[in-house]
Structures are given as C-alpha cells and as structure tokens.
Amino acid sequence: MEIISVIPRGYCQGVVRAIGIARKTAADHPGQPVTMLGMIVHNSYVVRACQELGIRFVEDPGKTRLELLDEISEGIVIFTAHGVSDDVRAKAEEKGLTAVDATCPDVLRTHTLVKEHCLKGDLIYIGKRNHPESEGTVSLSSRVHLVTQPDDVSRLPDLENVMVTTQTTLSIHDVQPVIQACLDRFPDAAVMNEICSATRMRQEAVMKLKDIDVLIVVGDPRSNNSCQLKKIAGSCGIREAWLIDSVLGLKEEMIRNKNRIAVTSGSSTPNSITSQVISFLTQYAKTGEFILPEHVDNRLL
Ligand code: SF4
Q: CA–CA separation, 12 vs 168, rounded Å?
C-alpha cells in the first residue's frame, strides 16, 4: 500500500491571514466581547480552537449576515474570510460595533470588480446559493444576478453590458458549462473567472494524480472547496473518494486492500489534522492494524 500526500493542500493564505487576525484581535482586547459573524472558515475544528481563545461565534445557516448582526449588541465584530456586503459594514457601524475585517484579499478583489462593473452594466455571478461569499457579493448591487447552473441563465431577464464572474471556491470543471451558457445567451459578455489560485492549484493537483484507488479529502462537509476536491476526483478517473473531517472519520473498509491512496485537504483544514491522517495511513500500510487514535490533533497554525 502506498500513501501519496498531495501537494499543495490545506490552509491557503486567506485562511492563515483570517486566523492570524482573529488571534490578534482576541489577544489585544482581553475582557472585551469579540464576536465572529459566521464561521471564520468552514471548519468546525478551527471554530473550536478560536472559541478557546475567547471568541464567540454567531452562526445560523438560515440567516443572512445582516440578520446575524442583530445577535451582537456590543464590542468587536470580526467579518469572516468570505467577505460581507456594504450593508453589513454600515449596520455594524450604526450599532456602534468595532469592525475587524478578515475578508480574504481575493474576495475583496472580486468585490471591487463587481462594484466597478455595476456602475456601467449588469453582472452575472456564478456561485453557490446560501453561501456567505455569494451572499456578500450578490448584495453589493441590484445589478448582480446569481446563477448556479446552466439552466438558471435562461431564466435571467434581458441584461445590458454583461460581465460574468465567479465565486472563488468553485470547481474549475463545473464552472465551464455555466460560463458557456452565459456566453450562449449574452455572446458579448466579458468573462472574469475569479476562482482563486489556492482553489485552482489544489484542484489541479488532484487532477494530475495517476492510478489512484482512493482519494481521502480531509475537510469539513460545509467547506465548499473541500467538497469540490472530492467531486473533482470522480471526474478524473479516481475510483473512490471520501470526505472526512479528521482521522476519526476513517473506516477500514475505505482503505482495505487498496494499493494507492492519495490524501489532500481543503484550504480551511488545519494542517495538523491532515498530517495525523497521513501518519495513521502510513502506519496502517506498514502494520495492517486499524486502531484509531483517541484524539484529533487540532492545532490552529
Ligand atoms: S480559498 Fe481562496 S478565496 Fe478562500 S480564503 Fe483561501 S485564498 Fe481566499
């Protein structure tokens, strides 16, 4: 049995930056209420580690960031790596909260692109519904139209001077048919594919794998880029792919009698958690003994 550790994988610069901002904010304001507006990144281990620093989280998948702000009455609010709309920033200010912005620079770049374009035309945004990054971007202007699949494009109204852009963490495979549907309907549209380089490089590394029996993706099921890594495996000939949130998600039937097992992780997965999975698999390959550890090795950075 051979264990292949896929490179690059794990934390991206945007996540490292967001965690650094959260840590520093908690350390610089002892005794003050510090609240994160949503999950800092979509990984429950990262959230837990931040809670241990004294940061409170308000999160409800059924509520928008604007609605979640109602649950914060004082102190410091941290905006997550996914970004927020201008309405959220304005409401935080009205409430007298001190805002700390951990939005990823790649998301901020998309926001700038969207705002500039919407002064002169309509914008089709390819993204996931009910995802905080899409919510933040779509709320920037009434001229932004969210689509998730090719069929959505035919339901759009007539648009002028169209630009097409994307959420940063989509699958480089899945986005193409949606872009094509936009171009079929609006042939003169400008296309700005904003899938970030971290997402792209992690997906391309999986696509380059050869003769793999199983791909293990270490990541939270709510993490869009982790889910996309698993999905991409199916479209590039990898026979089986599993998404687990830590070593404790492994089951022997996933790996028994396999020759080549590759391991990757989403950009919000702590590296210590992925390393623990790789160490366990390496040990299993040597001994054939499947005895899971009692604890997950969860370290923020
Ligand atoms: S996945 Fe991309 S957009 Fe998201 S935080 Fe990382 S670098 Fe930024």
A: 12
